[in-house]
Design brief:
Radius of gyration: 27 Å
Subcellular location: Cell membrane
Largest sheet: none
Pfam family, one: CrgA
Membrane topology: Multi-pass membrane protein
Protein name: Cell division protein CrgA
Helix content: 40-55%
Shape: elongated
Keywords: Cell cycle, Cell division, Cell membrane, Membrane, Transmembrane, Transmembrane helix
């Protein structure tokens, strides 16, 4: 049985992508990151120690937990951008 001739194709060369060199973070980045995590922790601890619903913001009631964990989450997400 005869064999078919293969087509000659040039090898695949991926396109060049210019990547911008990333410098270090600004000086305020790490203190803000740690500050958000610490303030969130203090917020949640204050909520539990105060007898639930007295502090930090009585009108928020159980949403104080969401605020505290939101602050901690924001600080944690900043750690993924830390260089």
């Amino acid at each position: 049985m005869p064999e078919s001739k293969g087509r000659s194709k040039p090898p695949y060369i991926p396109p060049r992508t210019a990547q911008k060199a990333q410098g270090p973070n600004p000086r305020w980045f790490v203190p803000l990151m740690l500050g958000l995590m610490v303030v969130g922790l203090i917020w949640v601890v204050t909520y539990y120690i105060s007898g639930v619903n007295q502090y930090p913001v009585p009108a928020l009631e159980r949403w104080n937990l969401a605020v505290g964990f939101g602050l901690m989450l924001a600080g944690f997400l900043m750690t993924t951008r830390w260089r």
